[in-house]
């Protein structure tokens, strides 16, 4: 397990008064990208005088250097996944511990520790984070890469290790859609580390990235102008999957595309295979009768990250393995672009237009 007591900067003292002085150095207001009314990307607006969070028992205040931009953030912004208004966008950040509670100190956390985390409100200069949610960033892993790991990396980890419920074994085939993008770049590599044979789909414009991931077979698709997903009708994917797998199909399909790929995913399954639907890039998966699964006695699941990081032990265990792979050079993490927080709307537009070839971040000054 990663040691949460590792220190990047040495605090001069750790008594209560030092913590109080640290809190007093944090301004009362801050920059934050805020949604006051749900809508398109321009509903996300930078505010320069948003109240800085106060420190509560069991928390730390992180001074953010990066915030990750994820598709789930766009679902919150649009109102697809409702949240109370107003809210600060984001749920993935990385930075330095700027203040900490007595409870956090008791866990060995120090001022100046370099950390990453996933809680709501990361599109801001400061975020209040429960100490139990902190991931200490080891030496040799940059904060930009560590921030990229928290949602996309952990999501890819549970998709390839747990969500398939062990219905796929080493040497069996796994279909992963959209391997040219963020989360599934991680997933393709992790699936290979698990010993699965991987078929990946990607757009022509992202095939250069996808070819570096080690997929056993890559299905390259035409692009959809201005969309975050490929033209899944430009190639007969099911026919190609069956050809590659000698007619057996895939024991697991990892699908973050949604509406455009649900039929492809189900029809690409092997007998007693599992359809793992985890995203809605092309729109939500429409309702379908469970009887559709009878032909192959197939399974379907719609998982979420919170249910696969249910306690600190599970969270840190997953992060520990990911950071270990990063340090060993077994994972290639592509940080595609870093927007200043002042360009909050542009970051969402870039992601939703399907332009990213890896992780998209905000840089927070």
UniProtKB/TrEMBL annotation:
Residue span(s) of domain Enoyl reductase (ER): 39-362
One GO MF term: oxidoreductase activity
Protein known as: Enoyl reductase (ER) domain-containing protein
Q: Output the Pfam families linked to this UniProt entry.
A: ADH_N, ADH_zinc_N_2
**CDD domains assigned to the protein according to its UniProt record, in alphabetical order:** QOR2
User: What's the superkingdom here?
Assistant: Eukaryota
Which PANTHER family does the annotation name? Answer: QUINONE OXIDOREDUCTASE PIG3-RELATED (PTHR48106), QUINONE OXIDOREDUCTASE-RELATED (PTHR48106:SF13)
Could you list this entry's UniProt keywords, alphabetically sorted: NADP, Oxidoreductase
